[in-house]
Amino acid sequence: MKAFTWTCCLGFGVASFLGNQSAEGRPQYRKFFLITYADEFANVPEAQQCSVCHTDKKTELNNYGDALVKMMLNRKVTDLEKFQPTLREAEQLPSAIEGLTFGDLIKSHRLPASK
Asked: Which of 25, 29, 48, 98 has the fewest CB atoms within 10 Å, counting from its CB?
C-alpha cells in the first residue's frame, strides 16, 4: 500500500509539472484600449473581446498585438497612463490593409488588425 501511495504521489507530481501551461492574459490591456478609444468602440461588440490583439486562436497575436508587444518590449504595464502612449504610438503604424494605419481603422470604428 505504501508503494502504491508513493507511485500515485509521484505520478501526480510529474503530471502537474508536465501539464503546467503558462498563460499571460492581460485583461487590463483590453480595458485600457476600451478606455482610450471609448468613443470609437462603445457599440462594437468585437472590441469587448480579446480579438483586438488576438486571432481566433486566442493564443496567437494578430498584427496589432504583435506591434504592441514589440513596442512594449514584453513589459507588464498595469497603469493606464503608462499604457496610453504605447496605444497612441501604435496608431501611426501600418495595418494589414494597404495604405491604412491602425489609427485610420480605429477612427473608422474598425478593429485595428487582421492577419
From this structure: 98
pLDDT, tens digit, 9 for 90 and up, residues 48-106: 788 888 888 878 888 998 898 888 876 778 888 888 998 999 999 999 899 999 999 99
Residue 4 lies in a domain: no
The answer as to whether 48 is a domain residue is yes
Residue 114 lies in a domain: no
C-alpha grid cell for residue 8? 500515485
The Cα-based distances of 64 to 10, 17, 21, 50, 106 in angstroms read: 43, 33, 24, 12, 11
Contacts of 84 (CB under 8 A, 6+ apart): 32, 36
Instruction: Please count the structural domains in the chain.
Output: 1
Alpha helices by DSSP H, listed for 37-101, are 38-41, 63-72, 80-90
- Residue 7 placed within a domain: no
Domain that holds residue 93: 26-107
For residue 99, how far is the Cα from the chain centroid?
24
